[in-house]
Amino acid sequence: MPGFDRRELAAIFAGGAVGAVLRVWLGRHFASAEGSWPWATFAINVSGSFALAYFATRLQERLPQSTYRRPLLGTGFCGAYTTFSTMQVEILKLVETHRYGLAAGYACASISAGYAAIFLATAIVRRTRVIA
Amino acid sequence: MSDWVWVAVAAVGGIGAIGRFLLDSVIAEHAGRDFPYGTFTINVSGALVLGLLTGLAVEGSLLVIAGTATIGSYTTFSTWMLETHRLAEDTEVPRALVNATASLLAGFGAALVGHAIGAHA
Q1: At A31, which helix (H) or strand (E)?
Q2: What does the pLDDT average to over A83-102?
Q3: Partner B, chain A 27-86, Cβ-Cβ below 8 Å
Q4: Which ranges of A30-99 would DSSP assign to H, the alpha helix?
């Protein structure tokens, strides 16, 4: 692939493979009944947001530059572990079964909790003194 | 789920992540990094395709591989939230709000349209 570092792409692939397997596994083991709150996706998206902010802030602001950690952990793992499309289809299914309040609540709660997780993880990394 | 399905999930999960990275890089190169156009495009297009697959009533292992694993990995929630947070931090609060709401609404609209197209195909 011209212009792209093959090892960087390999790191993204490896992280993405692990993230996808973990998400599919959790989704199957904690499957929600049709028309109820999608707990698995919600928990995945919030925990993945926390992890991404932790890695991104730490790698960017705290640790010496590394070429492959960000693609492996951030773009690959956290990017693939969390999902936007499944959340949207879940919202759509709630709307189709006329659970409008639950659909709106799920959308708002995902964004609020996801944003809060990013905020918290960023703050934690910045407050931790790193003895390098 | 059989072992080969898990192998496929891992493989397409990795491919979905690479696709996201490449498309985001190309979009950022053309549109700049003032606004996360890349993630927005990826998430909305992915919601359209996943809506289409469910509208076509794709089920079982095929839905897991093509939908949950491939499109699920291609789209991302965490990057969307991280970019929203970083915009707000850079005192670009209006852009952060636009990024959060436009992605949510456009993503929902895309899933709706994809589902309708699939259901009537």
Answers
A1: none
A2: 97
A3: 27-28, 45, 48-49, 51-53, 56, 71, 74-76, 78-86
A4: 39-61, 69, 79-81, 85-96
Kindly tell me the burial class for residue B29, based on how many C-beta atoms sit within 10 Å of its own C-beta (0-12, 13-18, 19 or more). exposed
Write the pLDDT tens digit of every residue in B109-120.
999 999 999 999
**Cross-chain Cβ contact A16/B22 below 8 Å:** no
Please report, in angstroms and rounded to a whole number, the separation of the first and last CA atoms in chain A.
36
A13 with B46: Cβ contact below 8 A: no
**pLDDT value for A1:** 47
Strand ranges (E), A1-132: none
Q: What share of chain B is helix, strand, coil (3-state, %, to 5)?
A: 85, 0, 15
Chain B residue with the nearest C-alpha to that of A51: B78
Q: In degrees, to the nearest 5, what angle opens at C-alpha B42 toward C-alphas A15 and A71?
A: 25
- Residues of chain A found within 8 Å of residue B71, distances taken between Cβ atoms: 85
pLDDT tens digits, A32-54: 988 899 999 999 999 999 999 99
Q: What is the pTM of this model?
A: 0.94
Residue of B nearest to A83 (CA): B76
- Whether A14 has its CB under 8 Å from any CB of chain B: the answer is yes
Of residues B34 and B10, the one with the higher pLDDT is: B10
Determine the straight-line distance between the first and last CA of chain B, rounded to whole angstroms. Answer: 29
Q: Do A16 and B79 touch (CB under 8 A)?
A: no
Of residues B12, B21, B104, nearest to A12 (C-beta) = B21
Assembly ipTM: 0.95
